């Protein structure tokens, strides 16, 4: 079957028809993989464009290019680790199968994000430009953040809900499937956050120029930043306490 | 002439609530029958309007006799399309013609009752002190107003009971008939109130001159007036 | 595969209910499954072809099962376009009535904005409805979902036409933008309610039940419609520009309008 035909089978993934999906990941079919990658790239690019468009049209173009990269690099970067973790935690899957399973879940997430992209565009169209001095603009920014996080969270949850039955089909027990799911989730979240950090900005600051990658490309990491932020908050609390 | 008499004889059948006949009559648009229903609607409501307006002045009686049927007919026409859409959506599968005829039929029943009660109302008005003498005849005025309200309410209830029976007969079950009746009532009340507001006065006020329409008939709406009245009552 | 292109077989019917001549329905779309008992198409009346926009609007109001059945057959695109045509035409007419409140430029601006806003809202929400239906396990095709959304928009707009005489009478009497806005919102709420009911029943009749996702989608659709009234403002009052320069949330816009109305009377 060619790639176009495979794209029409995406609804089967969304419906979670485990029997079909289990058969699909059993063997590597290039046309299917191309279709899944195409949907992942297109869906994530549309959603990325909607996020970036709020800042500027050029930022929309940059984010459309970077957002699919985050998903694909995360899937590829963790491919070997995921393939090792699965049998160790009780799910009998090889490298090819685990990579296809992760790609499948990312395809589902990207398809959902692509479908939400028009809504995200609509939100961006109706939210005032970022301005900390204007209360309405700040509230709008918060609403935009809320909408974006909600869409991504929903897509992520649904992708994992569809991944779980697939893992169960290969697992010795339900607990093993859950263990593998959490291990994959943790690994993907860990690597994905850092890739996002490296590829920032996705929205961009209003005072900074629109650019493809930030000036401090490989300076620091997402986790260092979180650590510094936490330390600042805790130290401030301690000073207040003293 | 004989056709008109035959059609006129069918009005008692409407009043008796012979749903079977009424349902058949709404299926085809028979011009003499519709003309007779219109005549009864106009005649009955005009007679009642005249009796109502006569309390203020003979000239007001003439004006109200013209305007009262207008409110009824414009309400039926203004809501015709909406009523025809709401009926099938709420479970009674009838078309524009049937729904319009059903509403007209219920207005004919109400107007026939109002027309029959108009001599009674005229008698009460004749025996009530003129409207200008408000201070000396508070009780009599209250009685007259109450009489008007009771007659209109009775006519409305009777017309809608007959309409409900006919809607049940047209299919969809009792629940659907009730839903459609409620939706039509709400729509007609909503539009009818505004039309009455635009075509005011019907009785008139002793402090204002007798006139066909107020100087600014299109200014404001019935519901804005109610809203402002409530606000004044609670905030002032 | 060739079987799928033929008319789905009718389930056994009592002989006395069989009409003298059953209308020939269009052939089933590729991928369509034969109807279950009680599903649209089992009654011969559902199979009467819808040939024009008038027939489609009558079917929307009186025989929605005909629409649901035809959407599963080939030629569904024509029906979808007819429904969109109805939505567009009726929205333009209702928009004109809305524009009579202020007159002048609003006589053309309001119809354009209302028709465009309605269609854009449908377009924005269509992909998410399809995704929600798939995630809910519904086996509906994208073209069927497009048809159902077109039906929702068409029924909404047709019902607005029913309200148009009432809206016109009020727009000639009141001076208050807030009062007219509230009236139009009330009419739109009723029309949207019936439209969403058509959509939900349509999914049910097509054997696609996903009540939770549909409720979430309905809430999103209503929010988009409400925000669209603010994004394309003014629909009722007047303005120097066709579209607003300031971005606002619809609730903030309503409160501002109410405030302005109570302070100045907000003339049309």
Written account of the structure:
- The complex is a heterotrimer of chains A (about 240), B (about 240) and C (about 270).
- Chain A is built from ten helices and no strands.
- Chain A is mostly helical and about 240 residues long.
- Chain A has one domain.
- By secondary structure, chain B is an all-alpha fold.
- Chain B has one domain.
- Chain B is built from ten helices and no strands.
- Chain B is globular.
- The N and C termini of chain B lie far apart (about 60 Å).
- The relative contact order of chain B is 0.14.
- The mean pLDDT of chain B is about 85.
- By secondary structure, chain C is mostly helical.
- Chain C has one domain.
- The radius of gyration of chain C is 21 Å and the shape is globular.
- The chains are: A mainly alpha (about 240), B mainly alpha (about 240), C mainly alpha (about 270).
- At the A-C interface, helix 2, helix 7 and helix 8 of A face helix 4 and helix 7 of C.
Which descriptors apply to this entry?
heterotrimer, B: 236 residues, 10 helices, C: 268 residues, mainly alpha
* Helix proportion of chain A: over 70%
Quaternary state of this entry equals: heterotrimer
Mean pLDDT of chain B: 84
Helix/strand/pairing category of chain A: mainly alpha
Question: Any low-confidence stretches of chain B, pLDDT <50, length ≥5?
Answer: none
Strand coverage percent of chain B: under 5%
General shape of chain A = globular
Whole-number average pLDDT of chain A?
85
What summary fits the major beta sheet of chain A? Answer: none
Query: Which of globular, elongated, flat, extended, rod-shaped describes the shape of chain B?
Result: globular
Structure classification of chain B:
mainly alpha
* Rg of chain A computed from alpha carbons, rounded to a whole number of angstroms: 20 Å
Distance between the amino and carboxyl termini of chain A? 70 Å
Question: Using DSSP, what is the number of strands of chain A?
Answer: 0
Element order of chain A: H for helix, E for strand: HHHHHHHHHH
